[in-house]
Amino acid sequence: MNATLPRHCVPPDLVIPPRPQAMMVLMEEMPRPEPDFKRVVQAIQVDPGLAGALLKVVNSPAFGLPRKASSISQAVSLLGLRNAHSIAAGLALRHAMNDHGNVSMERFWDTAEKVALICAELARCLRGIRPDEAYTLGLFHDCGIPLLMRRYPHYRDALVRANHGEGQSFTQVEEEAVDTHHGAVGYFVARSWHLPESLCQAILWHHDLGVFAANSNVPEAVKSFIGLVHFAEHIHHMHTRSAEDVEWLRFGERVLGYFGLTDEDYRSLIDAVQDALAAS
User: Fold this and answer.
1) Interval 247-263: pLDDT, tens
2) What is 21-278's CATH number?
3) CA–CA separation, 244 and 237 (whole Å)
4) DSSP label at residue 32
5) CA 49 to CA 46: how far, in whole Å?
6) What is the DSSP secondary structure assignment for residue 42, as one 8-state letter?
7) d(CA 44, CA 20)
8) How far is CA 193 from CA 23, 140, 147, 188, 190, in A?
9) Exposed, middle or buried, 129 (CB in 10 Å: 0-12/13-18/19+)?
10) Pick from 111, 110, 113, 138: nearest CA to 123
11) What is the mean pLDDT of residues 259-279?
12) Rounded CA separation 117/274 (Å)
């Protein structure tokens, strides 16, 4: 597999949510030798929904902060700008794409948030993955789905077929229906929000088995992110659905092999994540 850009383009009339002001401020301040923390805090506090969500997330066990943050100033100080940016980006995405009153979209984002927390908790157990980036991946990886649902009335039917995995990959079903797939759309959203390139590529390729092929030239960081999000979705799936976990049937063996996890490791990790989340 070649880690190239997608052949698909975002449909010209597909609306990509703009990057919020708070994200722009964080991006401006991060590279500075003496960043203006006060400016960052003020930018986040302007959006009460974002500020409240950020405090809730950073105080969860998944991030293991040495003490609870009671203000945005404390949260940013404890996390650092880079971590704060990663977490806030995912939270801001939900707010930017929220269809108020749309019950199905509320469910979608609630699920994304739970998967994101599982990603962050798994990242604490697996080497080489930062919990803040893991959380961002959990919220962003399927963000193309609500955008395609808004644009194409028939996309919901394609989504149902893709989730049943009837002889085709998830993205093949989408491509036949709308000539693109949610990974490609999510990739462009993530790039427009200036997320790290490894995260953008993980969003693009997360339904492609070829990333784990022996001759794959996909960067290791991207493989780790893709394996992580599949593992997190599998854990979430185990406790919320009775249907067969089609994607884990396709990816599970390769994900566990990539991380070098035995069956015992697999069960222990699931137990550890469940215990941590139950305590939150």
Assistant:
1) 999 999 999 999 999 99
2) 1.10.3210.10
3) 9
4) S
5) 9
6) H
7) 10
8) 8, 11, 15, 9, 5
9) buried
10) 138
11) 88
12) 11
CA–CA gap between residue 94 and residue 140 (Å, rounded): 9
pLDDT digits (tens, 9 = 90+) for 186-221: 999 999 998 999 999 999 999 999 999 888 899 999
Q: At what angle do helices 81-96 and 72-79 cross, to 10 degrees?
A: 130
Residue 82 has pLDDT above 90, yes or no: no
Residue 88 CA neighbour count, 13 Å, CB half:
32
Residue 207, token pair as written in the block = 């339904």
Confidence label for 18 from pLDDT (cuts 50, 70 and 90):
confident
Q: What is the DSSP letter of 251?
A: H
Residue 144 has pLDDT above 60, yes or no: yes
| CB-count burial class (<10 Å; 0-12, 13-18, 19+) for 4 | exposed
pLDDT tier, 242 (very low <50, low <70, confident <90, very high otherwise): low
Closest CA to 121 of 135, 142, 137: 135
Residues 6 or more apart whose Cβ sits within 8 Å of residue 42:
none
